[in-house]
Amino acid sequence: MSDRNVAIVGYAGLPVVGAGADPALMVQAVVSRLFEESSLPRDRIGFVCSGSRDYDFGQPFSFISALDGVGAWPPVAESHVEMDGAWALYEAWVKLLTGDIDAALVYAFGCSSRGDLDAVETLQLDPYTLSPLGIRPAGLAALQARALIDAGRYTEADFARVAARGTDLTAEALLEADYVASPLRAHDRAPRTDGAVAVLLAAGDLAREVCERPAWIRGIDHRIEVHAPGFRDLTVAPSIAEAGRRARGNLPQPDLAEIQAPWSHQAFLIRDALALEDGTAINPSGRVLARDIPMAAGLSRIGEAAARLTRGDADTAMAHATMGPCLQQNLVAYLQAGES
Amino acid sequence: MANRCAVIGVGQTRHDSERTDLSMPGLVREAALRALEDAGLTWSDIDAVVMGKAPDMFEGVVNPGLFLAGALGATGLPFLRVHTAGSVGGSTGVVASQLIRAGVHRRVLAVAWEKQSESNAMWALSQRYPFQPPVSAGAGGYFAPLVRAYIRRSGAPEHVGWMVAVKDRLNGLKNPYAHLKIPDISLEKVRKSPMLWEPIRYLETCPSSDGACAIILGAEDTVDAAPNPAAWVHATAMRSEPLIFAGRDQVNPQAGQDCAAALYKKAGVTDPRRQIDAAELYVPFSWFEPMWLENLGLAERGEGWKLVDSGATALDGELPVNPSGGVMCSNPIGASGLLRFAEAALQVRGMAGEHQVDGAKLAMGHAYGGGSQFFAAWLVGSEKP
Amino acid sequence: MADSGALTEPFELKYAYKRSLGPVLQQFFEALRRRRVLGARTASGRVLMPPSEYDPDTGEAVSELVPLPETGVVTSWSWVDAPAPGEGLERPFAWALVRLDGADTAMLHALDAGSAERVHTGMAVRIRWADAPVGGIRDIACFVPADDPIEAPAPLPDPAALEPLTRIVTPTHLSYTVQADPVRTECLLALAERRLLARRCHQCGEVYVPARATCPTCAVICEGEDIDLPDTGVVTTFCVINIPFQGQLLTPPYACAHILLDGASVPLFQIIGGCDAADLSKIRAGMRVKAVWAADDALTPTWESLRWFELTGEPDAPAADWERYV
Q: Do B83 and A328 touch (CB under 8 A)?
């Protein structure tokens, strides 16, 4: 493995409230803010990589118009993944390791206001045996939550406590609400919004030049599990455990962890798989169920973790991103602030 | 600084308008299993999988990598899904090679595919989205005006387009995987075929195909154990530019020029026309061959058509272009770019069978996408860089 | 919720995908159509249900299909009181993971148990077959509690009358509501007044039509002035569309052109109309054109207000003015 050190040196996130989200506008806003707050000159960017999903917009090639917000002129080395921007960050990290470039811009954008994202997520399932049944994300997540309850690991009250965090509601009050798909209720799910997120990466000396306290990526890994929920043990998250082990290596328990848990019960699965202990603050950026930008929620977790390290709130952090039904695919990063 | 990277296995499906004999998992596995066999490997030897395809509307499965990862032996592995429009096959190859060069993995499986028969490519590309100015008739209607502009600028005679159409289909007859087989292809037959989007005729147009391509990339220390010759990756490059901007030249895009220049520089190629032995270029409409020859610096500005006219780009010419038959014979959109990269690798491995260019030692693979705005290319060679 | 004053339009993405099955799934769905269940046995002896042509844990090929009974056990479940359109059943039901007896994996399907109280992990269930199989996973209508009275399904069609099932059809329908951003809205409102609104980027000075919020090369918000461009310009290149396709506005043949409006920095992509087939062959780059607008009572804040451009018959514009703009 290359011995180059790569760090996150900037982060900006802009959720958009209200409809009318336009990729180019959202990306222009977040990228310009990123460069306003950073001393990294735009022309040092050697690679641009983004994450998004055409089906948020119902339009093929929806990422093409987003490029208009970046200023790809003169032409830039640029790529795109049809995934959460966390994986675009991974691709950029790999390119930085090769030594081809010294700095990269990563962004992600998504939209929940145009279409029915639940219906979109139904279409991401096996087209022969799953999506024709029409199961929505709540139903799938509920199967996983039920499995945790059946195994005696957690209760509905535990889930409600997660959902209540950061609000002025009590778990008891939340438990009064109707189920959307038992045992899950509407508040068990992270609300979604339109928006965009951008992150700056830099290597070695350049990172130190432009950032007093870079958040170094000490390890980053991602893994995918079997797709069909009936083929999995839904009470464990082996891909998170594996990615977490590989990202963390022998490094200490992190001061904080930013995790992407689209459903309340998943916060426990993620925490357990990452073997996070009580001393680790989980999602200091906000409620575990903070408002998620589709295809950017994972990247924003990494950015939030990095921002806290750069601010001096903590020295070490882990960040997690997820995609697919019931935490099928996961990425974990271990970040550390410091000299190098 | 970065590690060396080689192609140690190549596989592709028999491309066809409708592979109704296969499911989507079956399609990608047909290519991947051939690549594994070529490399003398099994699923468990692979460290990571990179999958590329074009818009998911073609098959109506959102993020199909989620349900297909298991079919590609990727359970428990890192898995990436690349989407850069038509150039995606090329980008997939580039991303996979970077994983090796960065030392993150030792063996990476890259698979790119499209199963266009699940829907209809024209439908998927011609949706009238709200508030957009009216769109034309799919890709052909978009690119035909650019072709006309090239012909105008260069003064090229119309038979040049027919020549490319004939050459690519003759090459395709020598490629067992090619979709289009037109044994009686001729200049006359092309000339008489219906005009679709003038100046582009039916036989100057690529087909719509189901197909997949798989390559296995290995780190330097995996090459000796591989049963077949390696194609060493000498350089890769990607460049993008916005779709619409003042001063844009869509006929000879700057991003394409810059991509090629960066590629040659990285590989130490100073005279690409002479040093490159074979080029697999993304030519979906025949006139893109002379256009890309100029764009990629393989011909002088305005002279690309002369290179074609001279026969230089035929299989037995001095710079064979698309010895596999190219996109003009098979166009599973998501796979087409990787097919170019893979065919370039087959050339320098000496494994291109009947469409082998004798003595090819350095070959280029090229892909483009969007409104001629995304470019990915690589140079592969029989010798270590 | 749309912002007030914003233009919104629905967009439907609707298609019935035809999915070819391959050997394993074809056998599975053909059996299901005859009310028989097949699982797939992997090399290690695990029985996968639903069957798959590969073992998702290893990638190894799977081809051996084995018969399974119609009965099984619930391994997880969720009660859905208010199913969404197309979700499961049309009445409250449970999603259930059901491990058929003899299988090593569970399959997902709906469980019609009548009430949530009847459902629990570990309960015995069995298949209720669809009355009229069509080929697909819904040839199983749902599962029912094993101790519910057995109902005989409608008789099956004559197997000899059935075609081989190489494909299944999966209809999809996604609905979107698209709201135009403010600048796009201004452009569309301008079209309803027969105006072509352009905007200058204050940084590079270029004039973009239609007006846009961001400059694609400067990556800034365009803060230059708004300009109503004349509705005249030059053809910089074009093609003649000969083939029909779904949703076409004109009947082929017709010409599509890049049109550089007088004063614009980028061309528009528009139809050249008012030509008959013979005129089409006379179109050249450099010809001057003028917009043809809809009649007063047909003007709308959409591109439909601009019907097409027609040739004016003026002398061609000098090449130097337009040939860079393609």
A: no
DSSP string spanning B119-136? S-HHHHH----TTSPPP-
Contacts of A120 in chain B (CB under 8 A): 62
Domain boundary among C173, C208, C238: C173
Is C170 part of the contact surface with chain A (CB cutoff 8 Å)? yes
A236-258 b/e with 16+ CB inside 10 Å = b? Answer: bbbbbbbbbebbbeeeeebbbbb
C-beta separation of C1 from C106 below 8 A: no
**Looking at the partner chain, which of B43, B74, B136 has a beta carbon nearest the beta carbon of C241?**
B136
- Judge whether B163 and B309 are in contact, CB under 8 Å: yes
Looking at domain A6-115+191-210, does it have CATH number 3.90.550.10?
no
**Per-domain boundaries in chain A:** 6-115+191-210, 133-188, 215-337
> For residue A230, which residues of chain C lie inside 8 Å, CB to CB?
49, 75, 97-99, 105-108
Q: Which residues of B touch C180 (CB under 8 A)?
A: 130-131
Q: Which chain A residues have a beta carbon less than 8 Å from that of B237? A: 77
Q: Structural domain boundaries of chain B?
A: 5-121+207-223
Helix (H, G, I), strand (E, B) or coil at A292: strand
- What's the confidence (pLDDT) of residue C1? 44
Minimum CA–CA partner of C249 in chain B: B134
Write b or e for each residue in B247-261: b if 16 or more Cβ atoms lie within 10 A of its Cβ, otherwise e.
ebbbbbbbbbbbbbe
Cβ contact, residue pair C303, B119, below 8 Å: no
Burial environment of residue B33 by CB neighbours within 10 A (0 to 12, 13 to 18, 19 or more): middle
Residue located via tokens 């159509």: C33
Q: Whose CA is closest to C237, among A64, B305, B249?
A: B249
Is C212 in the same domain as C284?
yes
Judgement on whether residues C120 and C210 belong to the same structural domain of the protein = no
Distance CA A49, CA A93 (A): 10
pLDDT, residue B190, reads: 98
Query: How far does B192 lie from chain A, in Å, by closest CA?
Result: 34
| CB C208, CB C215: distance < 8 Å | yes
Q: Per residue of chain A (340 residues), what is the pLDDT tens digit? A: 677 999 999 999 988 866 667 899 999 999 999 999 999 999 999 999 999 999 999 988 889 989 999 999 999 999 999 999 999 999 999 999 999 999 999 999 999 999 999 999 999 999 999 999 999 999 999 999 999 999 999 999 999 999 998 888 899 999 999 999 999 999 999 999 999 999 999 999 999 999 999 999 999 999 999 999 999 999 999 999 999 999 999 999 999 999 999 999 999 999 999 999 999 999 998 765 568 999 999 999 999 999 999 999 999 999 999 999 999 999 999 999 987 7
- Smallest CA–CA distance, residue A93 to chain B, in Å, is 9
Instruction: Give A59's contacts in chain B (Cβ within 8 Å).
Output: 127, 129
Contact C138 A133 (CB under 8 A): yes
Looking at residue C2, what is its pLDDT?
Answer: 53
What ipTM is given for this predicted complex?
Answer: 0.97
| Residue C212 in tokens | 């846009």
Quote the domain boundaries for residue C160: 8-173
Residues C293 and C207 occupy one common structural domain: yes
- CA nearest neighbour of A332 among A265, A268, A254: A254
Shortest CB distance from B146 goes to which of C10, C237, C245? Answer: C237
Tell me how far apart the alpha carbons of residues A109 and A295 are, in angstroms, rounded to a whole number: 6
CATH class for domain B5-121+207-223?
Answer: alpha beta
Residue that is written with structure tokens 């008739």 in the block = B137
CATH architecture of A215-337: 3-Layer(aba) Sandwich (3.40)
Q: For chain B, say whether C269 makes contact (Cβ under 8 Å).
A: yes
- My answer on whether C32 and C120 are in the same domain is yes
First to last CA, chain C: 39
